[in-house]
Design goal:
alpha+beta, 11 helices, 21 strands, 33% helix, 34% strand, binds ligand ISC, binds magnesium ion, magnesium
């Protein structure tokens, strides 16, 4: 049975409350314990009673960093378009300033961690679809399970107020142990059954691809990513943990994420890293240009070779490489980018892929890098501003958090953001799925339409439980 023996939180809590009284403002207290191994999906699932709507899940493709948060100790959110990246960083920095952090481990992602993301375009007119997700939304979880290189750590974070007393910390001690004990209760979830699939305005979408193509020769615009939506209706409430478990089993090569807010859950399996920062080492990814997987090994290799030599896809990819290179060179000492793309093969699709390594300057923060990179031409287009304006104008879809940065940063400034692709938004017994594709001068609306069809598959399979 898993228990945390230490009761230091009581004394630490009293110290934090005294500090809050002295300063006349809240003080963050965080403490870390090492645990025996825990199944990350079970941890997410045990939060469904007490912390429904306040959970997140993150796994990187190699499974080096897995983070699951239950409960919200502090929420940072804003609907303001200007400075939104900076504001999150500022509020996080302010909270950390007088914090008491008891963490003897050096691993990234252990200790207080902020998890969340940004909407794709804060200036796009808002619809009901994303009403639960403001333009920037982050949680500092009450309980964070970090599985870093297969070692498990539990961080408890509490924002202590001047008026708090010892009863708060006694309650937390009990709650934490109950939570860990409940890891051993086994409950089976039943998959909701898909009743209806509505494709949102497919003909209008193809027309918008044709219209945009006409604007891509001669003018300033080189590339615009256009996305569309499927709305699915199920026979009963969709359980996020079931879909998440399916994604986890089915999409080994991708980032697996889930992010709840007020009853909705945004989740997916994205192959695309936006940026990772570990001390000064920066990793980013150029991912654009797509073809289907083959039914046989031979066909798969042949399709991959075709993609590697296809001019339309190479151009679509090259725009991303150019932009990421330029953006990173502004804030890095060094940027290393190979001259030619390779293939990234995920379960349903293969992409042109160029990995990027950089060395950040000392004054470069992770959120600054996110701001500079978002949206890359894999999600927005080129030039950035004009492409985002075009999307705002022609796209029917309210993208919300789709195609936007989602991830985490720890109290030492390390962290990682993925681009939230191959994703869906669960709302009760309905879900919206999103997929887009890079439109360039040589694009044909029918084949772009089929490409988006491939990109819906990971979420469709996970939701159907196949
Ligand atoms: C916009 C999406 O994919 C991007 C990432 C990889 C390949 C892409 C493409 O070939 O069009 C897209 O730029 C999506 O999955 O919704
Ligand atoms: Mg494409």
């Amino acid at each position: 049975m898993l228990t945390i023996q230490g009761t230091e939180i009581k004394d630490r809590g009293i110290t934090a409350v005294k500090k809050a009284q002295q300063l006349g403002r809240p003080v963050l207290l965080s403490e870390v314990y090492k645990l025996d191994s825990i199944n990350p999906l079970s941890f997410f699932k045990i939060g469904s009673e007490r912390f429904l709507g306040e959970r997140f899940f993150w796994k990187d493709p190699k499974g080096e960093n897995i983070l699951i948060g239950l409960g919200i100790s502090k929420q940072i959110q804003s609907d303001q378009a200007t400075d939104r990246f900076f504001r999150v960083g500022k509020e996080w920095g302010d909270l950390l300033e007088d914090s008491l952090i008891f963490n003897e481990y050096v691993e990234m992602g252990v200790g207080p961690v902020l998890f969340g993301g940004f909407s794709f375009d804060p200036n796009k007119e808002k619809t009901e679809l994303w009403s639960k997700y403001p333009d920037s939304l982050f949680y500092l979880p009450k309980y964070l399970l970090s599985i870093i290189n297969e070692e498990a750590y539990l961080t408890t974070s509490i924002v202590c107020m001047p008026q708090d007393d010892h009863t708060l910390f006694e309650r937390i001690l009990d709650e934490r142990n109950e939570l860990l004990h409940s890891l051993y209760q086994n409950s089976q979830n039943e998959q909701a059954v898909l009743l209806e699939t509505k494709e949102i305005a497919p003909e209008q979408w193809k027309q918008s691809v044709n219209d945009v193509v006409k604007e891509l020769t001669g003018g300033p615009l080189k590339k615009v990513v256009l996305a569309r939506e499927l709305r699915l209706i199920f026979d009963k409430q969709i359980e996020a943990e079931t879909v998440l478990e399916n994604l986890y089993r089915q999409q080994h090569e991708s980032f697996i994420f889930a992010f709840e807010s007020n009853g909705d859950c945004f989740l997916g399996a994205s192959p695309e890293r936006l940026v990772k920062k570990q001390e000064n080492e920066i990793l980013s990814t150029c991912l654009a240009g797509s073809i289907s997987r083959g039914k046989t090994v031979e066909e798969d290799v042949r399709l991959g070779e075709t993609l590697l030599h296809d001019q339309k896809n190479l151009i679509e990819h090259q725009y991303v490489v150019e932009m990421i290179k330029e953006a990173l060179e502004e804030s890095c000492e060094k940027v290393i980018i190979p001259d030619h793309p390779q293939l990234m093969k995920v379960r349903d699709i293969q992409h042109l892929y160029t990995p990027v390594i950089g060395e950040a300057r000392n004054d470069t923060s992770l959120l600054l890098l996110v701001e500079k990179l978002h949206p890359t031409p894999a999600l927005g287009g080129l030039p950035k501003r004009e492409a985002v304006e075009k999307i705002r104008q022609v796209e029917v879809l309210d993208r919300g958090f789709y195609a936007a940065p989602l991830g985490w940063l720890d109290y030492r400034g390390n962290g990682e953001f993925a681009v939230a692709l191959r994703s869906g938004l669960i709302q009760g017994n309905e879900a919206s799925l999103f997929a887009g594709c890079g439109v360039v001068a040589d694009s044909k609306s029918e084949s772009e339409y089929l490409e988006t069809g491939l990109k819906f598959r990971p979420m469709l399979r996970a939701l159907r439980g196949e």
